[in-house]
Specification:
Helices cover 38% and strands 28% of the residues. It is α/β, with parallel strands linked by helices.
């Protein structure tokens, strides 16, 4: 059964979405992150991805209070990301209720330090954020490109015990143009047994079905829900016995 992991992106304490990671193409939604989280919980969702996008851009998490509000008023498991650079950041995220953290920039800048987290905190607690443009990893909230090859990047940590990786094909993000099935198929073929969280381009329940058939562990989506293309009713069939 594929894991349904709605994404809540936070900018200035509000729920928002960007088109292809572009801060100049921002849509802010009326509902607070907590209100959105409660809607997901009410239909049976058990996991969400909370993105501190300002933290990712600035290099320091600044929306811990949103994390605390969600974990304090729901029973959701929250994967938290955005501006996590050191052990102190991770400890703080866990203190505010995160069940798992997703980190990207530190894995590119200090790969051995990030690899040590897999051992220190455990494979269930650490997810690699490996988002890319044309096969090259992008970091700092997708504001900075690198020359790091996506597959070599994943391999480095997979060989060191990594279990979970979240991958976004950034040009697909916020476009609702369909997920990058070939990209995800290649990752699953190269790294047998890895738990892949597929993100970007999801536009319908049919896309979720395709990802499930592919063998993807979890699907992360946001805009399709906020724009009404995926409804809470659509999610129910994936949440039975999840």
């Amino acid at each position: 059964m594929i894991q349904i992991i709605p994404s809540i992106t936070v900018i200035k304490g509000r729920s928002a979405r960007l088109m292809q990671g572009d801060f100049n193409r921002e849509t802010v939604y009326d509902q607070s992150p907590l209100e959105v989280a409660k809607q997901f919980e009410d239909v049976g969702v058990s996991k969400i991805h909370l993105v501190d996008l300002e933290g990712a851009r600035r290099g320091a998490s600044i929306n811990f209070e949103v994390l605390e509000a969600i974990t304090g008023h729901t029973d959701l498991e929250v994967s938290f990301s955005g501006g996590l650079y050191n052990d102190g950041d991770i400890i703080k995220a866990y203190e505010y209720g995160a069940s798992n953290i997703i980190a990207a920039t530190i894995a590119a800048y200090r790969p051995e330090y990030f690899a040590s987290w897999i051992v220190s905190y455990g494979r269930e607690k650490i997810t690699l954020g490996a988002d890319s443009i044309n096969g090259k990893v992008a970091i700092r909230g997708w504001q900075k490109d690198t020359e790091i090859d996506l597959y070599e990047h994943i391999e480095h940590f997979f060989s060191r015990g990594l279990k979970y990786v979240k991958t976004t094909d950034i040009p697909k993000h916020g476009t609702m143009s369909g997920p990058s099935l070939e990209l995800y198929r290649e990752i699953l073929d190269r790294f047998p047994g890895i738990c892949l969280l597929a993100s970007g381009g999801v536009r319908s329940a049919d896309d979720i079905d395709k990802l499930r058939e592919l063998g993807v562990w979890g699907v992360v989506f946001g805009k399709a829900f906020y724009e009404g293309a995926i409804t809470l009713k659509d999610l129910e069939k994936y949440l039975v016995n999840a």
